[in-house]
From TrEMBL:
Protein family according to the UniProt entry: Belongs to the claudin family.
High-level lineage: Eukaryota, Metazoa, Chordata, Craniata, Vertebrata
Pfam families: PMP22_Claudin (PF00822)
Domain of life assignment: Eukaryota
Its job: Claudins function as major constituents of the tight junction complexes that regulate the permeability of epithelia.
Primary localisation category: other
Entry keywords, A to Z: Cell junction, Cell membrane, Membrane, Tight junction, Transmembrane, Transmembrane helix
Membrane spanning stretches: 7-27, 79-99, 119-141, 161-184
Protein name, entry field: Claudin
InterPro entries to which the protein is assigned, alphabetical: Claudin, Claudin1, Claudin_CS, PMP22/EMP/MP20/Claudin
Amino acid sequence: MASGGLQLLGFVLAFLGWIGIIISTAMPQWKMASYAGDNIVTAQALYEGLWMSCAMQSTGQIQCKVYDSLLKLESSLQATRALMVAAILLGLVAIFVAVTGMKCMKCMEDDQVKKMRMAVFGGVIFITAGLAALVATSWYGNRVARAFYDPFTPVNTRFEFGSALFIGWAAASLAVLGGAFLCCSCPRRETSYPPTRGYPKNAPSTGKDYV
């Protein structure tokens, strides 16, 4: 029962992490900057994500523009996109694999060993998906930090971490943690020792000696 509860907890955490990875990938707030001109009316917030860039005016109006061409994007942005999409696809595969190996599911009940292996394999895929998202968000955040502290970067174009990065870091951590719980939910096999042979007992002496 304890391993079943740990398995369910791991799946829930990993699933929430996968949902968070999808939300982080779709959000345009991967990096943000605020700019105010001479008049406060011209103040605006700039956002850039993996798929589009947005500008929010002081009046609350938001205008977004999808990136025109894939070939015009930086190679690092393309790699970040690929890692996040790969994390989403791996998480989708991990869900189907882990569900098959869950103890609360009736599929593959005839072979409990294969069922436990499926749960562990699903946990490994969840960990891989979480690591892919963690690498993507950390790499992007490192680029944002380096550009921010670069003295040659204009003040009005210095971006900071956006909310999508924090959601991505939290989601990746949940996916890794949930996958680890799934891997640890497999009970260890008890070592079976061969039964010890007892020494034959000496027959009671009858007091008669045969020559």
